[in-house]
Amino acid sequence: MMARKSAKAAKKSAKRAKKVAAAPVAGKRVKPRKSAPRPSQGETVLLSGGNPQIAKGYGDAPVQAYIAAIPGWRSDVGRRLDAIVERAVPGVRKAVKWNSPFYGVEGHDRGWFLSFHCFTKYVKVAFFRGASLRPVPPGESKQKEVRYLDIHEGELDEAQFAAWVKQASRLPGEKM
Fold first, then answer.
1. Where do the domains of the chain lie, and which CATH numbers do they carry?
2. Mean pLDDT of the chain
3. Strand partners for 96
4. Is 128 within 8 Å of 146 (Cβ atoms)?
5. Distance (Å, rounded) from C-alpha 41 to C-alpha 20?
């Protein structure tokens, strides 16, 4: 019982100390914090590295909105990646999750097989079962199965990417 009372007293003391520390000093004016300006409706926010912030959504429309919002040369890469995936996998399933386009195949053991994300100097493609692709994409991951492909300006090998997409779409996908 005694230990409980002393713990409560210590808690109250800590609360009082926080209030005193947060209180303005006499004679000193406290400026209100400024919040970040909110984007106007229809305006896309770019996250660090220039990756567009797009609301989660399923289907082609959110993916096309993401691609349209990508700045600079990376937007062209996004359009080319999307077109290659559509040609290689007819009826591909699309979504935007975690500010990245995802591509998948419908079916019992199917899920997402590929995603990409924009950075300042490159576009990073994630193959969720990339360790099973031949040849294996060059970018290693901390996850055993995942492999990455970093695409810098002017470096997209469309034939190799299409071959990886076809292979990846036949493998069991990631459920996310």
1. 46-170 (3.90.1150)
2. 83
3. 57, 101
4. yes
5. 41
